[in-house]
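Narrative of activities, Objective 1.

The group set out to show that a structural description can be obtained from nothing but a protein's sequence at a throughput compatible with the screening campaign. Below is one input-output pair from the validation batch, recorded exactly as produced.
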Amino acid sequence: MQKTTDKPIVIVFGVSGSGKSTIGQLLSQHLSVPFADADDYHPQKNIDKMASGQPLNDQDRESWLLDLAGLIDENKEKGLVLACSALKEKYRKILSSGDQKIHWVHLAGTKEVLTERLQQRKQHFFNPALLDSQLATLEKPKYGIEVNVEDSPEEIINTVLESMSSKKSEFGLIGLGVMGKSLTLNLANHGVEVLAYNRQAEGEEHIVPQFLSENSDKPNLRATNQLKEFISELEIPRKIMLMVNAGAAVDAVIEDLLPSLDPGDIIIDGGNSHYHDTKRRNDYLKEKGIHFVGCGVSGGEEGALKGPSMMPGGDKEAYEKIAPYLERIAARDKNDEGCCTYIGREGAGHFVKMVHNGIEYAEMQLIAETYAMLRTAGMPIDQMAELFEDWNQGDLKSYLLEITADLLTVKDGDEYLIDLIYDAAGQKGTGGWSTTAALDVGVPFSTISESVMARCLSAQKPLRIRASRLYGERPVIERDLQTLIPKIKQAYQSARVINHAIGFEMIKKTSEENNWGINLSQLARIWTNGCIIRSSLMEELVSSFKASPEEHMLLAPSFVDLLKGSRKELTEAVSEGLQMFLSLPVYAAALNYLNGFTNEQSSANIIQAQRDYFGAHTFQRKDKPLSKYFHSQWTNK
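Output recorded for this entry:
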């Protein structure tokens, strides 16, 4: 296994009077690395403010912390010991924003001991009266080394050096497939001591040596194909993320791990597991004292490497212990917050990932149907690529539209590659799972379920070839692209809003049924970057759900105005597409949902009468209390 050899970066932190400078200087001597005192980097205005007895605020500290982060980056090759208060987690995030591994040493003591030390300290700008504000500000981390300031300096140094020399990895990951490799590298690139494991099965013997060889420049990255070695080389409590195929493989790996795990260890399933399986595993492992987190991960290979959207659910206590790692490697939203948040109990994390994939299915199908309408109406591929790129600059901006504009430009020889691709869409099952889950809670899921059915129908390519020959070619109907394009653009915008509303309503209803407490605004926030369905619409949903968390999305004033203004165009676009003999399942489903959702009187009264006629299922009456049910003798024969 690869071992780290670089000089360490150590930050000794705590409130004033804890001995940061003394311990920091001793550590720098033992480690043979430079020492820096963060107090020496305060601007004069900060020094004057503290000397007058006024505590610093976040704005006062911002430029100071950024300067210190720069200092750390400058010394990442030769090492550094920095004495710095670093009282809040947000301050520590700024200091650790580079790609270096940081060893955190917290000097902790009682108020009485710290007060006595401050009173003995001479010629320092810090006013002892500020100790109370510092203790109130201190946010103790769940990582790093904590030592008691009442221990002797020698005892403290020995404790720190012993902890640093253990060389155990902070985080373990099992499975070096595409996503597993990318997440492992992401962790390593963010300074985490990460250890990867991949089984030494026939045909896979080369994976670990090759992975280490390709990444020999990362001293904090190790890998092994020996499971016992993997488990023994992890810090306790162990934090182990599984990136293996959903289903039986997850259960098999858990059983392999269990004999060597200790109570309090944490297993994180980062695959696309079914949320019912996640709940079962959570209950099973809880009985054995092992924490379990089901974590949805979205963003594909690139997202996993550069920053995915992460949806952890399950054990809240376990999440708090792994949050510093997941949030560090996640994508960043527009406010530079990690696209990662605790979703809810049991299988909530994997559930929202499943619905995310369902929304994704329908979004992809909408773009495909848009392509079909424009192509059938005579638009050349190169012009369509330019059109999609133009749409992607405004309100329709999304990752899926962006990549579609890109892929339409690719040629193989003289032909566009898109024209050479066999038109049978694949799927991994999450779309179908979400459709079944919607039926379980009785929530309309039309756009998403129709996108799944469209893939199923596309897979019947040989049958479709035979049918097309029997039914003949589609009629050629002339279309004015200048008129059609604006109509389709508005229809596409409307259908996307409806599709998102359907997906989020499914999440809300299921969360209520399971008492998960899913925060839709936070969920939308972590889907604004890193994931496949990131878009400008998702940005809008963050504030929309924050303003009205319990309301149906399509009742929000902004979406009411949008859909009222484009309903005619959505209807006409669907009509024209159907007249071209095109299959538009998601466009039509979106329109049908909108029509059904906005019609006060539906045709369900006929259905209730039919049910009562043949099965005596009873019905309610509009002119009677709804608590009462009736049965009628319908036939006069």
